[in-house]
């Protein structure tokens, strides 16, 4: 029993949806061009062997047990608001009034920023590029603190548990400005569930979380603006209650808040990384000065790995065990486990093979003609593989750093594994710069 996908029928449906090229279709599906070509190949059977065995066992054809489903290409035919892809450029027609072009923005003065949960400095460095001077960087991880000190000896690196900082008072760690005078508080606190058992509401619901300490320091310093970034999953975490509580707390403390999920790909980063960005302006500045915040507008183009991985300095990196290398040798650029012979795929994936679609991160080899998938804390995890396009190996530390848009001069003086962790946890530097410039755009209106 053999099934194939009819190219002619696909072309008819493409025309119906206004899709003119296979490249455009691949982008709508979230596939590489190679993956789409494989899908449309006459030698490709879209029905995997376990489904065929089910048909054989029941003595039926696949059509007897299958239902036809409309192919969802992510296009709302009733809506004029859609994403347009053209020659590597992307234009999002939604919410254009919420964005501002930031590439020509210059700070009117050097603004001051205090960063909590500073990590390896991705956010801090991007804000520095945008025109902010650091007055303090709070971070508990000793290796990340070493990275900060090595690269920015002048920064006030506070290697301390945030709970201790809150308890002792942030003013004992920094040259504290008067209340209300700090320009920006920034940081990416971990996404944690709140306890609603007491139903006290507001900040009391957040006790025991890192957000609680961020909010306490925000309340104490009352900066003109704040920036909080987090994983995209925060949007739907605990049914949206986590984000709602955060927004309510920020409002109670005295801030007008906006949030959006932004793509690193829109800001000179060759990576499909998405983060929620939450920005607040103190209410008195909104009411008296008419301040308003706008998110950074997309640069209008997307970088690929071939754009950024040229002449990368040699550096350490991890290697695959021989058994894994032998499997990944069979995967073409842009491919993943479905490109493997069926028996090898079964053996490599184990139980995951029978869990159905998805799992495109397994046995994944990236392509020069696409951006990287989101980097993780380890470059060789089975579920989130990120194999080099040409060589069968993970990316080196310096390649990892390039993908996160760290400059080659930013050193990670630690073990290889810890370097990957620091880089994978970071905010991409160029994305942070774009966000920083959008905040400078607002602060400039005060000066």
Structure, described:
Belongs to the class I-like SAM-binding methyltransferase superfamily. C5-methyltransferase family. Its EC number is 2.1.1.37. This is Cytosine-specific methyltransferase. The chain is an alpha/beta fold and 447 residues long. The chain has three domains: 7-79, no CATH class; 96-302 and 427-446, 3-Layer(aba) Sandwich (Rossmann fold); 305-416, DNA Methylase, Chain A, domain 2, CATH 3.90.120.10. It is built from 17 helices and 13 strands. The strands form four sheets. Strands 6-5-4-7-8-11-9 form a seven-stranded mixed sheet, with helices on both faces. A two-stranded antiparallel sheet has the order 1-2. A two-stranded parallel ribbon has the order 3-12. It is globular and about 70 Å long. The termini are far apart.
Fold blueprint:
Layout: H1 7-16, H2 22-29, H3 33-39, H4 49-58, H5 62-65, E1 83-86, E2 89-92, E3 99-100, E4 111-116, H6 122-130, E5 132-139, H7 142-151, E6 157-159, H8 162-168, E7 184-187, H9 210-221, E8 225-231, H10 241-253, E9 255-263, E10 271-272, E11 274-282, H11 283-289, E12 295-296, H12 305-308, H13 322-328, H14 342-349, E13 372-373, H15 397-403, H16 416-425, H17 429-443
Parallel strand pairs: 3-12, 4-5, 4-7, 5-6, 7-8, 10-13
Antiparallel strand pairs: 1-2, 8-11, 9-11
Helix pairs in contact: 2-3, 6-17, 9-10
Active site: 191
Organism: Virgibacillus massiliensis
Family: Belongs to the class I-like SAM-binding methyltransferase superfamily. C5-methyltransferase family.
């Amino acid at each position: 029993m053999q099934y194939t996908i009819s190219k002619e029928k696909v072309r008819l449906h493409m025309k119906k949806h206004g899709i003119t090229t296979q490249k455009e279709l691949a982008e709508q599906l979230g596939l590489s061009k190679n993956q789409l070509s494989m899908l449309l190949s006459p030698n490709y059977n879209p029905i995997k062997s376990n489904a065929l065995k089910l048909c054989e066992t029941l003595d039926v054809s696949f059509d007897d047990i299958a239902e036809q489903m409309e192919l969802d290409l992510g296009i709302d035919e009733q809506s004029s608001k859609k994403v347009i892809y053209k020659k590597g450029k992307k234009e999002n027609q939604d919410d254009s009034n919420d964005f501002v072009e930031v590439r020509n923005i210059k700070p009117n003065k050097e603004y001051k920023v205090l960063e909590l949960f500073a990590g390896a400095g991705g956010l801090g460095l991007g804000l520095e590029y945008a025109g902010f001077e650091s007055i303090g960087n709070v971070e508990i991880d000793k290796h990340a603190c070493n990275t900060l000190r090595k690269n920015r000896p002048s920064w006030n690196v506070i290697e301390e548990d945030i709970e201790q900082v809150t308890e002792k008072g942030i003013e004992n760690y920094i040259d504290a400005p008067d209340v209300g005078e700090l320009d920006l508080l920034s940081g990416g606190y971990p996404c944690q569930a709140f306890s609603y058992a007491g139903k006290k509401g507001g900040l009391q619901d957040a006790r025991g979380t890192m957000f609680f300490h961020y909010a306490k320091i925000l309340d104490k310093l009352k900066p003109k603006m704040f920036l909080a970034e987090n994983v995209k999953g925060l949007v739907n975490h605990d049914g949206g209650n986590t984000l709602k509580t955060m927004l309510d707390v920020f409002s109670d403390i005295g801030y007008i808040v906006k949030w959006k999920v932004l793509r690193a790909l829109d800001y000179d980063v060759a990576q499909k990384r998405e983060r929620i960005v939450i920005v607040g302006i103190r209410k008195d500045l909104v009411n008296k000065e008419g301040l308003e915040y706008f998110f950074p507008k997309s640069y209008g183009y997307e970088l690929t790995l071939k754009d950024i991985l040229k002449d990368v300095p040699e550096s350490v990196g991890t290697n695959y065990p021989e058994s894994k290398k032998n499997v990944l040798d069979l995967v073409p650029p842009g491919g993943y486990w479905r490109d493997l012979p069926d028996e090898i795929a079964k053996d490599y994936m184990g139980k995951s093979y029978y869990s159905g679609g998805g799992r495109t991160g397994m046995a994944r080899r990236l392509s020069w003609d696409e951006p990287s998938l989101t980097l993780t804390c380890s470059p060789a995890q089975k579920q989130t593989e990120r194999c080099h396009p040409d060589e069968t190996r993970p990316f080196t530390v310096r390649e990892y750093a390039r993908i996160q848009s760290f400059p080659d001069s930013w050193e990670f003086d630690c073990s290889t594994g810890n370097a990957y962790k620091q880089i994978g946890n970071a905010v991409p530097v160029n994305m942070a710069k774009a966000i920083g410039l959008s905040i400078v755009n607002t602060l400039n209106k005060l000066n």
